[in-house]
Design a protein that fits this description.
By secondary structure, the protein is mostly helical. The chain is built from eleven helices and no strands. The two termini are about 40 Å apart.
Length: about 270
């Protein structure tokens, strides 16, 4: 960003399109990471204007919650690195889920009703199709999870921009070295177990799985670089992860394992001449 005016223009226009709101949020995060929280909150205030209008007129809280979440995550990243940022992302995701289950429960119930009607239509054409019944609490947890991943996307884009502009190659090495502290991993696992065992709040556990997934993919990228695997192999991994539930668990298991035994230090160093 060449100046404050350009940053405001890019962010406000992106947020105003709704679909590209995460890009506007990334611009807010970039300024926050580079200039600090004071400069970041100035830009955040401007971008919150169109986000608030969208929320009031269209009942879409997505841009608003994404902006706030990315700003908080950027402040956390600047203060304590990726583990703190990922913890902040899960926390804001859970807060959004709580709001969607209390203040905006009518909107969550409306989405649940729409999905139920869609399920009935699909079953009428294919009686063998089985679709789980979702209530407002389930929808609230799913919205919190989607928001968490949107914030991750915006923060990653901002960090990549920062590296491209001021420290080429810095984001790659930073992401490859991402490893969660053991205390954070234990806390996340306990939270996941408690939410899943509760039954009613099981979907909310997906919000706490976001940091484990991000850290797991960081290890996957580090391993790919260590063994000389290209972008094609990573693309296949991401594609299979999106389709196969066991692979999602495996990626999270990698993050847990890495937290306790530091996988990178146990791998042979690849000869640069090979």
């Amino acid at each position: 960003m060449r100046g404050r005016t350009q940053a405001v223009a890019v962010s406000v226009l992106a947020v105003g399109t709704v679909f590209f709101a995460w890009i506007g949020a990334a611009a807010v995060a970039l300024v926050t990471l580079r200039k600090g929280s004071t400069q970041g909150v100035y830009l955040l205030a401007w971008t919150l204007l169109p986000a608030a209008v969208i929320a009031l007129q269209g009942s879409d809280l997505g841009p608003l919650t994404t902006l706030v979440g990315v700003y908080i995550a950027a402040c956390a990243l600047r203060a304590g690195g990726w583990p703190l940022a990922l913890l902040a992302i899960s926390a804001t995701g859970l807060v959004l889920a709580l709001l969607m289950n209390t203040v905006a429960v009518a909107q969550s119930q409306q989405i649940a009703d729409m999905l139920a009607q869609l399920g009935e239509q699909l079953r009428s054409s294919n009686p063998q199709m089985v679709m789980p019944a979702l209530n407002a609490t389930d929808i609230a947890g799913m919205i919190g999870m989607i928001n968490a991943w949107t914030v991750v996307l915006g923060l990653v884009l901002a960090r990549w921009w920062q590296a491209m502009l001021y420290n080429p190659g810095g984001f790659r090495s930073e992401f490859h070295s991402l490893r969660l502290p053991q205390t954070l991993v234990v806390g996340l696992l306990l939270g996941v177990l408690l939410l899943v065992s509760s039954g009613q709040w099981a979907n909310w556990a997906m919000v706490l799985q976001v940091p484990l997934t991000v850290a797991g993919f960081a290890l996957v990228h580090a391993l790919a670089a260590r063994f000389g695997l290209g972008a094609g192999a990573l693309t296949v991994v991401y594609g299979l992860w999106a389709m196969l539930l066991p692979l999602r668990w495996l990626v999270q298991l990698l993050a847990v394992t890495d937290s306790f035994i530091d996988v990178r230090k146990r791998l042979p160093v690849r000869n640069s001449g090979e």
